[in-house]
């Protein structure tokens, strides 16, 4: 049996312990690093730790101070003003348009009599047919017997009772589906037709085929469905929020890029009462002629529905400072003094924007030089000197005026070893 010296035994015990201590020390030091993405409690790269109770000021009008400039500074900065005013707002409601088949232009082809569908000339869906085109032929024992009775009445047509029977027989043949031309044919040939032809009631394409050749049919059998696509419906889905501004008769600009057809105008004919829950949208419908067959059912496009004009308080879009969270403007509150004010915006139409709250008609707002005024306002709110003196001591406020409230204390950085 092999034996080990005491020194070897001690070394074998100490080495693993030393390795474990080194690993733990490395991990502890690593947790102090400013960025360790694989550690669940590590800070995100670029984030600055702040002392408890401190906060970074939000980029809103509350973090900005009023700005007072000299007449020369106003001229140098190119500051211009405009008044908030009530204007007639003619906005449009966007939507997604889809061309679909006009439901009123779909017809079903049914036989007038019971029998067997011996011939079916249209075998596939999508096939174009013309009004009056033969679609199939049915053999009916009932119709054949009615033709024989009519021919017998023709042979006795010289007597008064026979003429009454003849008129009744002719009417019966028409009810059973024979055309005037087919009746004239049997009158001329004195031969009963074994088959009755089924013809297309209108032009279009075969939307659905409900029967196959050789089956028994009756008046309830839908042999074919034909859709006329010379005129289509356009279904437009609009957001729930914009549905209230749409009414029947609203003009709509429609664009279907893949059709090769230039944009065209249609009018809203119907507003569906149901809300589409999945998309939270309302559907509206309009009819358009399918000129040259350029539009195909299922084709997508875009729509701009003209809403009813309304009066609204508006300003130019260039006057608004949008932080991504809030929007504010600079209102003239004195000679060359501009005060930041948070506002609530509504619809945007062209270069104008609706103001829902925060301004009154007639108030003057900065419309040019807004970026420079906003930068100056943020600097003054943070305690800097102002225009032309960034980084120095704050200037005392003019007599009789209060200084802008100081911004939150700057963040205290944690210095890590």
> Helix coverage percent of residues?
10-25%
Shape: rod-shaped
Summed up, the helix count is: 6
How much of the sequence lies in strands comes to 25-35%
Give the C-alpha Rg.
42 Å
Q: Regarding CATH, which class of the largest domain?
A: Mainly Beta
Mean model confidence by pLDDT: 79
Estimated structural class? alpha+beta
Order of helices and strands: HEHEEEEEEEHHHEEEEEEEEEEEEEEEEH
Question: Could you tell me how far the N terminus lies from the C terminus, measured between alpha carbons in angstroms?
Answer: 54 Å
Largest sheet: 7 strands, antiparallel
Q: Using DSSP, what is the number of strands?
A: 24
Describe the structure.
- This protein is of the alpha+beta class.
- It has four domains: 1-47; 57-88 and 310-417, conserved putative lor/sdh protein from methanococcus maripaludis s2 fold; 93-103 and 229-308, Elongation Factor Tu (Ef-tu), domain 3 (Beta Barrel); 111-222, no CATH class.
- The chain is 20% helix and 33% strand.
- The chain has helices at residues 6-30, 71-77, 141-155, 160-175, 180-189, 370-381; strands at residues 67-68, 80-83, 85-89, 92-101, 106-109, 115-120, 128-129, 134-139, 195-199, 204-209, 216-217, 224-227, 231-239, 251-255, 264-267, 270-276, 281-289, 300-306, 310-316, 321-322, 327-334, 337-349, 352-357, 364-368.
- Strand 20 and strand 21 (327-334) form a beta hairpin.
- The longest helix has 25 residues, at 6-30.
- The chain starts with 5 loop residues before the first helix and ends in a 36-residue tail after the last helix.
- Residues 29-60 and 385-417 have low confidence and may be disordered.
């Amino acid at each position: 049996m092999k034996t080990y010296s005491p020194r070897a035994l001690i070394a074998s015990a100490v080495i693993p312990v030393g390795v474990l201590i080194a690993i733990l020390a490395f991990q502890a030091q690593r947790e102090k690093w400013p960025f360790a993405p694989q550690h669940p409690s590590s800070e995100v790269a670029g984030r600055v730790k702040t002392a408890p109770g401190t906060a970074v000021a939000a980029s809103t009008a509350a973090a900005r101070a009023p700005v007072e400039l000299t007449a020369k500074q106003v001229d140098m900065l190119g500051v211009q003003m405009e008044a908030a005013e009530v204007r007639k707002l003619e906005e449009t409601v966007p939507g997604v348009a889809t061309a679909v088949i006009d439901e009123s232009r779909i017809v079903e082809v049914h036989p007038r009599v019971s029998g067997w569908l011996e011939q079916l000339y249209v075998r596939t869906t999508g096939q174009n047919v013309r009004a009056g085109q033969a679609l199939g032929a049915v053999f009916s024992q009932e119709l054949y017997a009615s033709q024989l009775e009519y021919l017998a009445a023709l042979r006795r047509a010289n007597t008064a009772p026979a003429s009454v029977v003849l008129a009744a027989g002719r009417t019966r043949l028409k009810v059973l589906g024979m055309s005037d031309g087919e009746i004239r044919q049997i009158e001329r040939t004195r031969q009963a037709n074994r088959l009755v032809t089924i013809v297309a009631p209108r032009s279009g394409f075969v939307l659905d085929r409900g029967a196959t050749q050789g089956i028994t049919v009756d008046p309830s059998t839908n042999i074919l469905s034909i859709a006329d696509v010379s005129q289509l419906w356009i279904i437009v889905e609009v957001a729930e929020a914009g549905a209230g501004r749409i009414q029947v008769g609203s003009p709509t600009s429609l664009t279907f890029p893949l059709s090769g057809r230039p944009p065209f105008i249609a009018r809203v004919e119907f507003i569906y009462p149901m809300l589409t829950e999945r998309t939270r949208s309302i559907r509206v419908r309009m009819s358009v002629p399918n000129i040259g067959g350029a539009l195909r059912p299922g084709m997508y496009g875009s729509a701009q529905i003209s809403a009813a004009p309304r009066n609204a308080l508006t300003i130019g879009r260039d006057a608004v400072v949008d932080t991504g969270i809030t929007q504010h403007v600079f209102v003239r509150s004195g000679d060359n003094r501009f005060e930041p004010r948070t506002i609530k915006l509504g619809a945007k139409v062209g270069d104008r924007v609706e103001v829902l709250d925060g301004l009154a008609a007639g108030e003057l707002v900065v419309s040019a030089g807004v970026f420079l005024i906003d930068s100056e306002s943020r600097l003054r709110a943070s305690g800097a000197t102002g225009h032309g003196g960034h980084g120095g001591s704050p200037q005392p406020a003019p007599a009789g005026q209060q200084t802008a409230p100081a911004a939150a204390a700057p963040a205290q950085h944690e210095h890590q070893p």
